[in-house]
What we know:
Strand order of the largest sheet: 2-1-3
Shape: globular
Structural class: mainly alpha
Strand content: 5-15%
Amino acid sequence: xxxxxxxxxxxxxxxxxxxxxxxxxxxxxxxxxxxxxxxxxxxxxxxxxxxxxxxxxxxxxxxxxxxxxxxxxxxxxxxxxxxxxxxxxxxxxxxxxxxxxxxxxxxxxxxxxxxxxxxxxxxxxxxxxxxxxxxxxxxxxxxxxxxxxxxxxxxxxxxxxxxxxxxxxxxxxxxxxxxxxxxxxxxxxxxxxxxxxxxxxxxxxxxxxxxx
Length: 212
């Protein structure tokens, strides 16, 4: 990946972290405990996960995975527990301190955009907040999810059964009956967020819904 592209991706990642920090600062204590779109996690849990993700290095990821006996869910749960802190304000301060980091696990850099956009919506939709995300960030995240196997949280196999067509971006991916809608809604749906299905249409929607 060219250095200019990498710098551009990190700028988008940092902008999303800063925007989410600003939004979280507006929440009252009860909202931090609201169930997020990420099943089993509260808003605060998702924020703690984003702290853990921002701190993760390539070596640290591998070491943590070994300690978790190669169980991704266990590894993520440990990261949330480690980074929650004693209060929502401590979680928020930790997120603020890692906002400009450029460390990453051994994965494509666009995974950082998937983390920030999808988990950003996990939080915002749970508490009634709305963000207009940069189209490039959403499109890059969606393209990555479309080529990432389901075993790693993506939708590569699904792309042989449906075609995703964004109504607000120049993007069409996959083969089969169309699923149409905003790129953000498509991204959320292929990332397992059923809340976005009502924002989509097309003959391929039942196939997508069956996998979300």
